[in-house]
Design the sequence.
């Protein structure tokens, strides 16, 4: 399904699961592609006489990956949440603050951190419209490296959805 935001403060959430690259694998780190979530959108041009943003973006969306059980963030788009993650490849922001300058955000899941991709782990991917000046703002979300959308009828068991598209949960 297509997802878009019209107002600042709107959000969409998706429950995802970590899948094993092979039977008996303890984590998803053996996938050829590292486990990650990618958020992308086309940022519109600032309208004439519009309110100039304090960042390089007209519309700012933010990506967060949360632990499904605790609700705590384990990864942010283009930022690190856990000090143990500092220095890992793919890191583009030195702080744990959301990225306000890029329309491509990547949240990496790394073994041995709060975002450890343990097989069977349930995570919540949250996309938030931090600022919407020009609406509607559409976006694309990609799951890679052993991440998949959980079956809504078996959400506590992390079963695959057999290729069906995710639908944003109401917020």
Sequence:
């Amino acid at each position: 399904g297509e997802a878009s935001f019209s107002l600042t403060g709107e959000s969409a959430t998706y429950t995802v699961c970590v899948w094993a690259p092979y039977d008996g694998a303890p984590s998803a780190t053996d996938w050829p592609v590292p486990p990650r979530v990618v958020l992308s959108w086309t940022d519109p041009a600032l309208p004439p006489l519009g309110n100039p943003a304090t960042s390089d973006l007209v519309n700012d969306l933010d990506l967060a990956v949360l632990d499904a059980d605790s609700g705590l963030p384990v990864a942010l788009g283009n930022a690190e949440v856990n000090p143990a993650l500092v220095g890992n490849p793919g890191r583009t922001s030195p702080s744990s603050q959301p990225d306000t300058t890029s329309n491509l955000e990547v949240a990496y899941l790394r073994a041995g951190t709060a975002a450890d991709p343990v097989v069977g782990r349930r995570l919540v991917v949250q996309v938030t419209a931090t600022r919407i000046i020009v609406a509607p703002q559409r976006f694309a979300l990609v799951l890679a490296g052993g991440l998949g959308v959980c079956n809504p009828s078996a959400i506590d068991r992390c079963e695959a959805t057999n290729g069906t598209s995710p639908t944003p949960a109401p917020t």
Strands lie at 3-5, 11-18, 36-40, 60-67, 73-76, 104-108, 122-131, 137-144, 147-149. Residues 82-94, 159-171 have pLDDT under 50 and may be disordered. The longest strand covers residues 122-131.
